[in-house]
Amino acid sequence: MTQFLSQTLFPALFNMSLTAGIVILCILVVRLALKQAPKVYSYALWAVVLFRLLCPVSLPSGFSLLGALDAPARQATPVVSTVTYLQPQQPAEAPSQAEQQPAEPDTPVPEPVTPVSPVQTAPSVDWAVVAAWVWMTGAAGMAGYSIFALLRLRHRLVGSLHLKDNLYLADYISTPFVLGLVRPRIYLPSTLTEQEMDYIICHEQYHIRHLDHVVKVLAFAALCLHWFNPLVWLAFVLAGKDMEMRCDEAVVKQLGENIRADYSASLLTLATGRLTIAGTPLAFGEGDPKGRIRNLLRWKRPKLWLSAAAGIACVAVIAACAANPAVQSSPTPDHNRTGQYASMEDFAQQTMENTKEVTYYKLSNGTATTEEATAQVTGTKIAWLDKMGEMDGLAPEGILELWTFCYLVQIDAPTEEVALVGGMSEEDGWFDLEGQGGHNIVALRCPDGTYDVLYDQPVNDNRDFYGYHNSYEEAIYDWYVTDQGLDLPLYVEDWTEQITYPDGEYHGNFPVHRYDGDGWYLYIPVSAWNQWAADPTHSVWVSAYNTGSAVTVDYLETSLADSTRGMTPADDSGRIFTAQADGWTYRTYYTDAADGGCWKITTQWQDDAITDYPYIAIEPQVMALMAESFTLDSRITPAEETLAMTAVLQNLSPEGGRLVRVECNKETELTRNGTESEVMRAAASKLEPIQDPESYMDADGGLCLYLDGPGDCHISLYAILSQPATVLLRYVGDTVNESALAEDPQLYLYLMAAVEHPDVEFHDLDGDGFQEVLAWPAGDVQNLIIYDYYDNEIQKTNPAQTLGVEFAGYTGLIGNLQQEYSNMVQAGSGQINETGIYQYDDGTLTWVCSLEDALLTT
After folding, report:
1. What are the beta bridge partners of residue 797?
2. Region entry Disordered: which residue ranges (predicted)?
3. Among 75, 240, 247, 792, which residue has the fewest nearby CB atoms (within 10 Å)?
4. At residue 704, what are phi and psi to the nearest 5 degrees?
C-alpha cells in the first residue's frame, strides 16, 4: 500500500496538479478578457480544469498550451499521453553479474516486464512516503468532513413538506438549495414569498437541467484530491461564482429584466454569508451575492457578434488546454527504429504478392499420394488477419505484438487433383494449403508505427508456440526471452528430462507453468496439482490424485538461522531439512528474504499412499523440483487487478465451498468431483477487469453458477450467450466487488453443461488438449451426454442416440489404442459381447474395437 501511494499514485496526482495549475493560470487570464461577455463562457472554461484535475491522460496535439511551454510528455498508450514533471521513484536493485560488466556502446538492455518492488537500503526518512501519507490524510479528512456535513444537513431536513414534483418546503434553513445526486431535490425556506419562489425555483431547476449539482460534486472531489494546491482552491471558488452568475443571467433572460430588483433583494436576504466547501448543497445564496448583484445590474442581452467571438475563444482555449504536447517518439532506447512494413496489412499484402507458386500433393483415385506437384498462383485473398495480444516494456526497440494470419489462393490446377491433407481446405476454388490455423506472427511495432516481423510460422508446423501458455502475452514473452537469450524466467518449461519414472519408460512431456508470487516465483506442473491456498505469505498446492502430497510456501519473519536452530540439515547447503512423523515425510527448503526473514518451502508425502503407478510414484521428486524452482525475484509481482477474484478461483477445491446452479431463483447444488478445479484455475489467469459489467449482463446472458470461496466471499459466473466462449465473473467479498471477463471456451462449456445437469465432469476424449464436458442426466452412468466446443459454438452429443444403441457410457480406459487415444466411449445393446469401444472427435463416434479387445490391449 505504501509503495503504491508513494511511488505510483501520489507522483501521478502531483503531475496532474502541476498541469492543472498551469491551465488555471491560463483560464484566469482569459476570464479577465471575457469580463464583459455572458458568464456562460467563463463558466465553460472551468471544464478543462476539472478534466485536468481528474484525468491523468489526454490526446496529444500540435495545438497545445503545454506544448508551447515545452511540458514533458510521454506516450501512455498508442492513443493517449501523459505529462510527467515528476518521475515515479525507481526502486534500487542490486546489479546482476551481467550488469557489472562494461556494456558495449549502444547495446540495448531489456527493461523488466513487471514492476520492481522497492528495496530500502538505509534507515533514512523517505520523504516521498511521508508526503504521500500527508496527502492521503488531508484528502480523507476533507471527504470525511463532507460526509459528516451532509448527514447533519439531512437530519435537519427531517419533516420537510413535499409541495410537488421535486420541491420541498423546510423550516430551519436560511437559503434555498439543491440536494441529491441521482434524484436531486429542491428545498425552499418556509419564509419565501410566492413571487420569490417563482424565480428561485427557476434558478434551481436551471442548475439541475444543466447537471450543475453533479459538476459541483466532481469539483469537490477534485479539491479533496488536490487540497495541497492553492490554485485549485482558487479555481473552486471562482468556478462556483461563475456557475451562479451564469444561472442568474439565464433566469433574468427567461423571466424578464423587470425582476432584477426583486431578485437582487432576495439574493441579499438569502445570502449564506459563507462558502460551502463540502461539495453539497448547491445553495441559492452562495457564490458572492454582492458580486452577483453587480453583475445583474449591468447585465444586458449580449450582441450576437460578442457571443460568437466569446464562444470561438472559449473553444480554442479549451482545446489548447486539454491537449497534451505531441509526442514525437516512443520512450524506448531506440527512438529512430523504423520497420520494413508500414502496417501489418502491408505485410499481409506483400506476403500474398510474393506468393507466385505453391506445392501440393496429388490425388489418385481419391487417395492422397506422395507425388508432389507445383502450380502457379492466379489469385490471393486474406482469410483473416487478427491481433491476438501485445507486450510493452520487453523489447527495447518497441512493442511486441502477436498476430494470426491466413490467406487463400487460387491456382492453375484442377481442384479434383489437389489432395487436402493436414487441415488444408478448399471452398469455391479458393485453397488454404497451409492448414487450419494460419500463421503465428510476432511483430515489433516501432515508435513510428511501422512493423518488423520477427517470427512467422504456420500454426500446424509449430503447435508448441502457444502450447501450455495461459495467454498470448505469455507466448510472446517466452518466445522473445528464448530468442534473445534474456536472463528472465519463462512462463512455461519442460521438466521431462528431470523426471525419472520408476518403470524406466517414457511417459510423455512434463510441462510446468510459472506461478508468480509477490517478489518470488516457482514452477507448478500444468496438471495433477491443485492450488489450495494463495495468500501472499502462505500458498499451498496439493496432489490431484488425493494422495495427501502437498507443497507449501510460507514467509517467516524470523531469520533462517533462528528458524532452523537445533535442526540437523539433510545436505551440505544447510538449508534443507528432512523430518518424519506418523508415516509422513517432510522435506523443508529455506531461502533468505531481503528483509531479514526467510521463506520456507515444505514438501510432504506419505509413502503408503504412493503406489507403483508411474504418475503417482514420482510425486516426491516432482515436489522436490517445485521447491527447488522457488526463486526470489523483485521483478515478479502478482497482478493487482482481480487479485482477490483470482485467489478464489485458484483456491477452489472439492472440500472447500459449494458450487450452486441458480435458475429462476431456484438453487441446485452441483456435484463436486474435482474436475472443475483445474479449469477454474486456468480461467483465473485469463481474467480481464471490466468497468461496465451490466452491459454484458444485458447481453443474452443468465446467471449460471454461484461459487462459494474462502472466508465470506463468493463468485457469480455468467455465460455470455451473445459472445461465445466468454464468461463474466463477479466477485463479491467483504471489501471487494469486482467484475472481470475470461475468454475461456472450457469454462464457458462447463457453465452451459452445468445449467442442464448437476453432475458434470471434464475429460479429454479425443486427446487434443481441450477437455470436453461429460454429463449424466439423473446420475445414470449409462446415459452419457457429451458437451464440446468447436466451430465457434457449443455442440451436444448423445452417443446412444447417435449410434442407435440402448446405452452409452464413459469407460475411462487409458491405453495405446488407435494412435494412443484414451478415454473411450462404451456403447451397446446391453450384452457384453455386443458392446463396442468408440473414439470421439468433434461429435463423430468412430468404432475402435470390442470391449474385450480393449481390455486385453490396455
Report:
1. 786
2. 91-117
3. 792
4. -110, -50
pLDDT per position as a tens digit, 480-520: 999 988 888 999 999 999 999 888 888 888 999 998 888 89
Distance (Å, whole) CA 289 – CA 404 = 65
Q: How confident is the model at residue 44 (pLDDT cuts 50, 70, 90)?
A: very high
> Residue 447 has which C-alpha cell?
515508435
Distances, alpha carbon 559 to alpha carbons 41, 563, 586, 593, 594, in Å:
66, 6, 20, 8, 10
DSSP string of 332-364? SS-TT---SBSSHHHHHHHHHHT--EEEEEEEE
**381 within 8 A of 349, measured Cβ to Cβ:** no
Mean pLDDT computed over every residue of the chain: 80
* Mean pLDDT on 89-107: 37
Q: If you count them, how many residues does the chain have? A: 858
| 66, 18 contact by CB (below 8 A) | no
Distances (CA, A) of 724 to 108, 662, 792: 42, 20, 7
pLDDT score, position 315: 92
Chain-centroid distance, C-alpha 403: 20
Residue the block writes with cell 491405453: 815
pLDDT at 274: 61
The alpha carbon of residue 348 and the mean position of all alpha carbons in its chain are separated, in whole angstroms, by 30
Ramachandran category for residue 757: left, alpha or beta (phi over 0 → left; psi -120 to 50 → alpha): beta
The Cα 463–Cα 437 span in angstroms is 10
Residue in the structure block whose three cell numbers are 466446443: 789
Q: What is the largest CA-CA distance in the chain?
A: 106
CATH code, residues 492-632:
2.60.120
pLDDT tens sequence across 151-200: 888 888 887 888 888 899 888 788 888 888 888 999 888 888 877 888 88
Could you give the angle at which helices 127-156 and 212-225 cross, rounded to 10 degrees?
A: 150
241, 236, 299, 291: which is closest to 268 by C-alpha? Answer: 291
**DSSP states of 630-649:** -EE-TT----STTHHHHHHH
Contact status, residue 406 vs residue 439, Cβ threshold 8 Å:
yes
Q: What is the rounded CA–CA span in Å between residue 435 and residue 459?
A: 8
Alpha carbon distance 831, 250 (integer Å): 91
pTM equals 0.44
Can you give the pLDDT at residue 260? 83
Amino acid letter, 366: G
In whole angstroms, how far apart are CA 500 and each of 391, 620, 670, 808?
Answer: 37, 11, 39, 38
Q: Residue 782 burial by CB count (10 A; 0-12/13-18/19+): exposed, middle or buried? A: middle
Instruction: Tell me if 826 sits within 8 A of 858, measured CB to CB.
Output: no
Among 98-102, 497-501, 620-624, the range with the most confident prediction by mean pLDDT is 620-624
Q: Which of 439, 437, 415 minimizes the C-alpha distance to 427?
A: 415
- By C-alpha distance, which of 389, 382, 390 is closest to 351? 382
Sequence letter at residue 236: F
pLDDT value at 226 more than 90: yes
Q: What is the torsional sign of CA 152, 153, 154, 159? A: positive
Binning pLDDT at 50, 70 and 90, where does residue 580 land? Answer: very high
Give the residue from 380, 429, 387 showing the smallest Cα distance to 405.
387
